[in-house]
């Protein structure tokens, strides 16, 4: 049965109707992420969770409105994974649009909004060119983890990247050794070690087919 599900899974662009479930999948996957804990947690667990939900909701809505790549992994009609890629056609870091800043400010506070922008600035300044994408989120539903869907979703991201004629590749910041090893097994190479806030990690990069 599980093998059949693997064969039937498909990766397609998300629709507006998928965003609520996508946000829930991302929230659960990133709930214990060291960067978000460092950025959003100030001693109150309920407040942290509210801020995290708000940050994910606002970012997803912004990426959707700016027509960035939101890829969903489906088994049948069920959404079980999400990958969000942002290109530098959308101003990132300190160049973020003011409407995004205001919405994020109301959802997370000034310090957290600034930390999110600082993270993006560090990443894009370390990428090989201004024609690179950033893997903003990648998540598999908790109940579906450990079944190989993560690798399939990464492969879908790489296929998307290879089809973009003006994209040199995709970068991702990873702060878990298991995640670093997973991306490395899919042709991501380390660019450099980064310390973002109090969180140490590695910036990994996949060189797209169009740049070869």
Strand count: 7
Let me know the largest β-sheet.
7 strands, mixed
Number of helices: 8
- The ordered H/E elements are HEHHHEEHHEHEHEE
Radius of gyration: 16 Å
Our estimate of the beta-strand percent is 25-35%
Low-confidence stretches: 1-5
- Structural class, from helix and strand content? alpha+beta
Mean of residue pLDDT values: 91
Give the helix proportion (percent range).
Answer: 40-55%
Principal-axis shape equals globular
Strand order of the largest sheet: 1-2-3-4-5-7-6
End-to-end Cα distance: 40 Å
Architecture overview:
The chain is of the alpha+beta class and 212 residues long. Helices cover 46% and strands 25% of the residues. It has eight helices and seven strands, in the order αβαααββααβαβαββ. The chain has helices at 2-8, 19-30, 34-40, 45-65, 98-108, 110-126, 149-162, 177-184, and strands at residues 9-13, 69-75, 78-87, 132-140, 169-174, 189-196, 199-207. Strands 1-2-3-4-5-7-6 form a seven-stranded mixed β-sheet, sandwiched between helices. Strand 4 (132-140), helix 7 (149-162) and strand 5 form a beta-alpha-beta unit. Helix 2 packs across helix 4 (45-65), helix 4 runs antiparallel to helix 5 (98-108) and helix 5 (98-108) crosses helix 6. The longest helix is centred in the first third of the chain and has 21 residues, at 45-65.
């Amino acid at each position: 049965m599980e093998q059949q599900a693997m064969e039937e899974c498909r990766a397609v662009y998300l629709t507006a109707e998928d965003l609520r479930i996508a946000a829930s999948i991302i929230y659960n996957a990133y709930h214990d992420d060291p960067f978000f804990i460092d950025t959003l947690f100030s001693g109150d667990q309920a407040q942290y969770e509210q801020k995290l939900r708000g940050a994910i909701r606002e970012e997803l809505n912004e990426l959707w409105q700016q027509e960035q790549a939101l890829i969903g992994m489906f088994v049948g009609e069920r959404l079980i994974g999400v990958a969000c890629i942002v290109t530098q056609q959308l101003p990132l870091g300190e160049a973020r649009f003011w409407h995004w800043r205001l919405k994020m400010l109301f959802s997370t506070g000034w310090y957290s909004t600034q930390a999110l922008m600082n993270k993006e600035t560090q990443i894009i300044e370390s990428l090989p060119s201004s024609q690179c994408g950033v893997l903003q989120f990648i998540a598999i539903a908790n109940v579906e983890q450990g079944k190989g869907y993560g690798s399939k979703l990464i492969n879908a991201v790489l296929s998307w990247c290879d089809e973009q004629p003006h994209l040199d590749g995709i970068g991702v910041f990873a702060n878990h050794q298991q995640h670093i090893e997973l991306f490395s097994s899919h042709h991501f190479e380390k660019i450099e070690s980064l310390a973002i806030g109090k969180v140490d990690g590695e910036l990994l990069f996949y060189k797209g087919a169009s740049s070869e």
